[in-house]
Amino acid sequence: MITLNRHGHVAEIVLDRPEAHNALSTAMAVRLAAVCAEVADSDARAVVLSSAAPRSFCVGADLKERASMTDDDLMRQRPVFRSAFGAVLHLPQPVVAAVHGFALGGGTEFALSCDLVVADLTAVFGLPEVGVGLIPAGGGTQLLQRRVGTAKAADLIFTGRKVGFDEAVALGLVDRAAPEGEDRATALELAAAIAANSPVALRAAKRALRHGAPLDLAAALDVEDAAWRTTALSGDRREGIAAFNEKRSPDWPGL
């Protein structure tokens, strides 16, 4: 249900349940969290979250599985799902989503959990949970408003409507456009460009961005300063300066 591929310094986590359009089951959520933990502790410098389903990125929770669940079953599933979404959100490396086709419910939330979203022209986003008596709770209510603003997030969440590629770009849900069928290749190319940089600096920059965003400016600048100090005392900083002065590509030690 989840495949892990390596492309040099890029780890690709593939949602691989095509027969169900990558609907998120309990077992799939457990596996995703485990794979993310493996990637977090690896030497990967950047991550791509992609889909092996031909017409979908992810269509959200597996409602067929939920149809037979009791209330107690649903409550037991909840921390498993939170762990899966949190595992993507808290990966220490920069993460690029490669989206095509339907990214609905949890699919949109997985994209929102990534740092950058690449989408092709077939991409359709939406958070339709209110239509089945729930709310987006894989981070959707919080991550969407941080991306597009509270009013636009309210529009999408309260109506549950789907938005196609053009509107998704206009809203700011998509960071880079790809030709149809090229979302994965475009995302891998972007991730490779990111991974050419210092792994210490990349992780520090992500911490500064993520941890500083909800704070006031003074506190956020302290977060930035702490992240800078991590890089300043690293072997990567010393190698980066040496490589620049010697006019060669750096060989990052990653510490």
Automatic annotation (TrEMBL):
<dbReference type="InterPro" id="IPR001753">
    <property type="entry name" value="Enoyl-CoA_hydra/iso"/>
</dbReference>
<dbReference type="InterPro" id="IPR029045">
    <property type="entry name" value="ClpP/crotonase-like_dom_sf"/>
</dbReference>
<dbReference type="Pfam" id="PF00378">
    <property type="entry name" value="ECH_1"/>
</dbReference>
<protein>
    <submittedName>
        <fullName>Enoyl-CoA hydratase-related protein</fullName>
    </submittedName>
</protein>
<keyword id="KW-0456">Lyase</keyword>
<keyword id="KW-0443">Lipid metabolism</keyword>
<comment type="similarity">
    <text>Belongs to the enoyl-CoA hydratase/isomerase family.</text>
</comment>
<dbReference type="InterPro" id="IPR014748">
    <property type="entry name" value="Enoyl-CoA_hydra_C"/>
</dbReference>
<dbReference type="InterPro" id="IPR018376">
    <property type="entry name" value="Enoyl-CoA_hyd/isom_CS"/>
</dbReference>
